[in-house]
Amino acid sequence: xxxxxxxxxxxxxxxxxxxxxxxxxxxARAATAAKPRIARLAKAVRPELAHLPRRRTDRTxxxxxVAATAGLALAAAVVTAAGPWDADGQRxxxxxxxxxxxxxxxxxxxGSGANARTPQAAPSAAAVLAGLGGxxxxxxxxxxxxxxxxxxxxxxxxxxxxxxxxxxxxxVVDVTTGTRLYAVGADRALTPASTTKIATAVAALSALGSDxxxxxxxxxxxxxxxxxxxxxxxxxxxxxxxxGDLASxxxxxxxxxxTLAKRGIHKxxxxxxxTLFSGPALHPIGVNDNLAPVxxxxxxxxxxxxxxxxxxxxxxxxxxxxxxxxxxxxRDAGVETTPPGPSKATGRAETxxxxxxxxxxxIVERMLTNSDNDIAETLARQTGLASGEAGSFAGxxxxxxxxxxxxxxxxxxxxxxxxxxxxxxDRLTADxxxxxxxxxxxPARPGLRPVLTGLxxxxxxxxxxxxxxxxxxxxxxAKTGTLTGVNTLAGTAVDRDGHLLAFAxxxxxxxxxxxAQRALDRTAxxxxxxxxx
Length: 533
What we know:
By secondary structure, this protein is α/β, with parallel strands linked by helices. It contains 14 helices and eleven strands. Helix 1 (about 5-50) crosses helix 2 (about 60-80) and helix 6 (about 195-210) packs antiparallel against helix 9.
């Protein structure tokens, strides 16, 4: 009788093969290391085997028991030699294999302490994507081969519903081959809302590099004795006691005070410099709990509560707020200051102390997971500066388009006005969003991998933590987008056959946010469950 292979096992086949490839070298070494133990085990078991009768069938269970004991002991010896399981349940051999496969790139997920100047790159997703086949080209626009009609049958009815409003655009692309599998209005430029952050992330990583860090410094003017707190455009700078791996104003103040004390200085004139950025600080949407005025010097995103993400009341003048907190920390360290005011550090100012942000890779992941508008607008300005443009809303928007054009991405119809997607004048297409995701999965561009690893995980993290609780949890990773009358979703899904797919669904004129979100979630869930490739 032939037992049919179950679908979950068939889908798991590629993952099992990759796991086998990962552990095979270590297990081979383990087997060699275990040979002496096996020899001793065999010697110990041999007398027991010798005493067992060989021709009586009623003793079969004894042979089985001894053989099972020997087998378990052998397995234990090999497992011990292979190395322990780590805290996440991953065998050391797998981790070593993954690290060995990575030649470059990846995000530095460590702290920013003693090794901040030489960050160690964590294994990125390059090996996994390469194992799936990888693609170095752009998204193909040729028609999907015969047999793809099933995908149209699955997605079409789910997208053509009243909950998704008066018009939508959609695209699905195989990340491995770059082949477009599904497209309806894929070249239609629509308001993308927060899926704009995918474009901002790709542009920033391309312009600055995934290991880039933003530095805040305290500089002393030699002639006037003025101490200037110079903003470096770090969107994650914190004044809180529990800083973690973030740059800390408290640490900067303590280090500055220690240097001043060595020089016998215990009272200074304090000012702050925000001239790295230019243009209006207030977003066109006006005062809003979703975004503080954008500045090169901001602590904790100008939040007035203990939150780290999501809407919150913001201070009206973030740099002045950060400078006042810095002054308080200096006083705690024994340095008296004047009330801080705006200024500009000269080229002769001597840097006394600095603190640096986590790597850009880590910041991008935080931005995408939490849909952080403050980070997005700061990264747009930093991209502008790195591209030779102004550090402003206009300069950042222009630079994002320039960086994406350099990558050969389809920009027809696209229009950028900010980095966060809060501006309703932004326009993107489903073709561009899927092309961005495919580019981030290109094994030849490991520096873009944080765009994929930062996407919220359905049912688990970020803006998708409370969604997909009844389907596709852990299988779909996507960036959400929500404005009044606009709902979008763009990300990746592993389908039933193990294919990694990039998708983008944009809907305009939606009558209600909750209904539209559920409709998009059903569509992404159906895509993940479809063996339509």
